[in-house]
Design a protein that fits this description.
Layout (H helix, E strand, L loop, with lengths): L1 H8 L10 H8 L19 H19 L10 E6 L4 E4 L12 E3 L2 E4 L1 H10 L2 E5 L2 E2 L2 H8 L7 H12 L3 E4 L8 H6 L17 H30 L23 H10 L15 H7 L6 E2 L16 E2 L1 H6 L9 H14 L6 H4 L4 H15 L4 H4 L15 H8 L24 E4 L17 E7 L7 H10 L5 E7 L2 E5 L13
Parallel strand pairs: 1-5, 11-12
Antiparallel strand pairs: 1-2, 2-4, 3-4, 5-6, 7-10, 8-9, 10-11, 12-13
Family: Belongs to the SEN54 family.
Protein name: TSEN54 tRNA splicing endonuclease subunit
GO biological process, one term: tRNA-type intron splice site recognition and cleavage
């Protein structure tokens, strides 16, 4: 009773130490979040609906105004350093140190978003000039232009509460396009202890200068690689003139290298590879043609030599006899051909009154037989392909495809850097927490780009820029709408083709 009278007589007094009665009350306090139930969309003016809304609001404000009680011994103390935008820990860190924090000058430090999240979880107490920070002070001091924004922290806290490991994205840890093309190993400097990652806001200020220099290096690297791949074309063995068509077809080495690097499909163009037709050689050439010419030496390994191919054995196996029809079948074919040529029995021809009408009829029939009717080919809008043209299936599908397959990395190095869009976090899956190491975190599950529903939608230029910064890890856009977070992703697509590549 004395404790209750004391609390009533001094309602505005603040004390970090609670009385036994307050400790027992906090211990027996319910930790369940109130359930709102089904949402009321349209007010009906009834008293029942008014009571439900008042009850929901009271539960909401009681939950927000409730003070959390933690043991002082379980709190990790830290000091806020505004000049460096970090929190320096004065007591040893807890279990959270496995996935959070970094070391600087032999001391354990936390980033602003990490400290604010741990303050909300009741694990860290931050002091500044000897006074403790409240949650409201943390939101005011830690979230600024020099660190991260409010929307970025909402996404960070949401992912951390789901169990993900979230780190700031560090562009310097990513290999360049030239290093990825040469498959160079990761630098040893990246395997040391985790250091402080640059804040997303500071990164946007210096991204313009660094990206332009990096783009020039990547462009020079691409030129050097292309120059090296084009060297075999200058060998004298590749430029031998051939008088007649060979059964082999030399492939362009630069084309193969370029196609295999941009797409994951087979680099060979099977439509340009011709196999020997022994039957045509025996039919249209003299009987002395008993061998096929050898292939181009540039298509063979250096120590391999191939001579002419003897086809004398195949000459005895291939049936070159012409098909001869019987006398009755030949007579039927002749009769059928004669009937087709009997123009006097054609009703359309009999309806023609003048020679001009007859010529118009023949012109129309020739266009129909040739597959080019006037109502299709003599107007502005024409078909995508002429059936009279015989082309491979792959070229046909490529010709008639309106929606093309896309690759977000194509042409990204030639774009100008953007200040409005940047990657904020690298996200690792929850099942990797037990084996996670900050010194070598490995490849992230996704990388997060934070945006707002009130802002613009990323265009193709922004998608290409961001994809070039994270070519091997998928990007996810977290759109924040007044606390509600929705996740979207944009990926490459390849149209299906019912033909062998």
């Amino acid at each position: 009773m004395a404790d209750q009278n004391t609390s009533r007589s001094q309602p505005n007094s603040y004390s970090e130490v609670l009385t036994p009665t307050e400790l027992f009350a906090a211990r027996n306090r319910s930790h369940k979040i109130p359930v709102r139930g089904q949402k009321d969309f349209i007010p009906d003016g009834s008293e029942e609906q008014k009571q439900r809304l008042e009850q929901a609001l009271d539960e909401h404000w009681n939950l927000i105004s409730e003070e959390r009680v933690e043991r002082l011994g379980s709190l990790v103390k830290g000091v806020w350093i505004p000049e460096e935008q970090i929190i320096e820990l004065e007591t040893p860190a807890g279990k959270f140190w496995q996935t959070m924090g970094f070391s600087a000058n032999g001391k354990q430090c936390l980033l602003p978003e990490e400290a604010l999240f741990l303050m909300e979880c009741g694990n860290v107490q931050v002091f500044y000039q000897g006074l403790p920070f409240s949650i409201q002070d943390g939101y005011e001091k830690f979230l600024s232009v020099n660190s991260i924004s409010f929307n970025q922290y909402l996404v960070y806290g949401h992912l951390k509460r789901l169990g993900y490991v979230v780190l700031r994205f560090n562009p310097s840890s990513e290999p360049t396009a030239y290093a990825r093309q040469l498959n160079l190993p990761v630098s040893k400097d990246r395997g040391q202890k985790r250091k402080r990652s640059p804040s997303p806001s500071r990164e946007s200020k210096t991204s313009g200068e660094t990206t332009v220099g990096q783009m020039e290096q990547d462009h020079e690297g691409e030129k050097s690689v292309n120059h090296q791949t084009e060297m075999p074309e200058e060998e004298p063995g590749c430029k031998q003139e051939v008088k007649h068509k060979e059964w082999w077809s030399p492939a362009d080495v630069s084309t193969i290298t370029e196609s295999s690097s941009t797409t994951g499909s087979c680099p060979w163009d099977f439509s340009s590879i011709h196999f020997p037709d022994v039957g045509s050689v025996l039919r249209f050439h003299s009987k002395d043609a008993a061998s096929l010419t050898p292939p181009d030496p540039s298509l063979l390994p250096g120590a391999v030599t191939v001579g002419p191919c003897d086809i004398a054995l195949w000459r005895r196996r291939v049936n070159l006899k012409e098909i001869r029809m019987s006398h009755s079948d030949q007579r039927k074919e002749d009769e059928k051909y004669r009937r087709k040529q009997d123009i006097n029995k054609d009703p359309e021809v009999r309806r023609c009154r003048t020679w001009s009408e007859y010529r118009q009829l023949m012109t129309k029939r020739r266009s129909d037989v040739g597959g080019r009717p006037a109502h299709l080919w003599d107007r502005e809008v024409k078909p995508l392909h002429d059936p009279a043209q015989a082309i491979p299936h792959e070229e046909l599908l490529e010709k008639i495809s309106i929606i093309k397959s896309t690759n977000l990395l194509e042409g990204a190095s030639r774009l100008q850097p953007l200040d409005d869009w940047r990657i904020s976090f690298s996200v690792f899956q929850p099942d990797s927490v037990s084996s996670f190491k900050k010194s070598s975190p490995g490849r992230p599950y996704v990388r997060m780009v934070v945006c707002s529903f009130d802002g613009p939608v990323p265009d193709l230029s922004a998608l290409k820029q961001l994809s070039s910064q994270s070519p091997e890890v998928p990007l996810v856009f977290a759109a924040v709408d007044h606390g509600d977070i929705s996740f979207y992703t944009f990926k490459d697509f390849h149209l299906p083709r019912d033909v062998f590549p």
